[in-house]
Design goal:
Strand order of the largest sheet: 2-1-3-4-5-11
Structural class: alpha/beta
Shape: elongated
Number of domains: 3
Number of strands: 12
Helix content: 40-55%
Order of helices and strands: HHHHEHHEHEHEEHEHEHEHEHEHEE
Largest sheet: 6 strands, parallel
Strand content: 15-25%
Number of helices: 14
CATH architecture of the largest domain: 3-Layer(aba) Sandwich
Distance between the termini: 71 Å
């Protein structure tokens, strides 16, 4: 196996200059090309472990999803987190970093030990945490000054950098749209009751629905677990109770399950029932009719998380916790505004 010294010898430069060229540091451009060509000739691959020992950096970040054993495994049952990964990868790639994706459960007995190991084993330089549920964050004390950021933190803790999405606004714009359409009997199928995004979407939705000016007179509320199957089952339960004019689903996967139920049972969308989802994933444009939804800019969230983490890694102290504003996208699955 070729070494850095072999590359330097073939290029006729010092090992220090070869290292600078291979790592994108300031060197003469002709020298950089020469060193890169020699490295290719020798099939040279940098020793990442050795580099970590020298620099103290792994040039790797971790994207960690915290699931709960009480609910569906969304990594297995949906493609939702692909969009976050796509955005984080873009931010990491721009800086020459690699990305590791991992999934743990809140109920894991060794969760604190997991975070302790990440701080001390130097396998990653920072962590992006997607906590999902409104649980205490014991990892804050374990991580200490180690660079980390959280998506949609439900805690106000000055030690925690957080990239936030205004899900409260997302719920509001759907309720306002339903009011402008003149719907009176509606249903709301939300995600797990203790999921923070679900809680915020519900809060925004009902802030409008409970307003005296709202056209809505009756609402049936149900819960799913963000999966297609749970949307189908929730729709089945709702329509056994009452026919509704419109359904707001807490994400696009559940909305597609509702659409399947309605299609199988002779309901026309949107003539009989309008459906509005949330997230604007690729599925929302692939099903028929195409799904009205709220665009949550998922890839942008991923990139924003990555950028915020790198600000922490670089010890930048002048950043603010960003807040992304979702927008309503109207397609064929819901009636136009009157």
């Amino acid at each position: 196996m070729s070494t850095l010294k072999d590359v330097a010898s073939l290029a006729g430069v010092s090992p220090a200059t070869a290292s600078l060229a291979l790592n994108g540091k300031p060197v003469n451009e002709d020298t950089r090309r020469l060193v890169m060509d020699c490295a290719k000739q020798l099939n040279y691959v940098a020793n990442k472990i050795g580099k970590t020992l020298i620099t103290g950096k792994s040039n790797t970040i971790l994207l960690l999803l915290l699931n709960s054993t009480k609910y569906a495994n969304l990594v297995v049952d949906t493609t939702f987190f692909y969009y976050y990964i796509e955005g984080v990868l873009e931010a990491a790639g721009e800086r020459g970093y690699s990305l590791v994706f991992d999934v743990r459960n809140w109920e894991d007995a060794d969760l604190d030990d997991y975070f302790y190991a990440k701080v001390h084993d130097k396998s990653v330089d920072g962590i992006i945490i997607i906590p999902q549920f409104t649980r205490p964050y014991p990892f804050i004390d374990v991580l200490g000054d180690f660079p980390y950021v959280v998506l949609n933190s439900h805690l106000s803790d000055v030690r925690t950098a957080s990239f936030n999405v205004d899900n409260h606004l997302g719920g509001k714009v759907i309720a306002e749209y339903m009011g402008r359409c003149g719907f009176k009997d509606i249903a709301f199928i939300n995600g797990p009751a203790e999921h923070y995004d679900a809680m915020e979407r519900r809060r925004g939705f009902f802030d409008v629905i409970e307003n005296s000016d709202s056209t809505v007179k009756a609402i049936i509320e149900g819960h799913g677990d963000w999966t297609i199957r749970s949307g189908y089952e929730a729709a089945e339960t709702i329509f056994k109770k009452k026919k509704v004019e419109a359904i707001f689903c807490g994400n696009d996967f559940m909305a597609s399950g509702v659409l399947r139920y309605l299609s199988e049972n002779g309901y026309r969308v949107p003539d009989d029932v309008s459906i509005i989802g949330y997230d604007n994933i690729g599925l929302s444009r692939a099903i028929y009719p195409r799904l009205s939804t709220v665009d949550g800019y998922l890839s942008e969230i991923g990139k924003g998380l990555g950028n915020l983490l790198f600000a922490k890694i670089g010890k930048e102290n002048d950043f603010e916790n960003p807040v992304l504003k979702p927008r309503l996208v109207i397609r064929e699955s819901s009636k136009p505004i009157k």
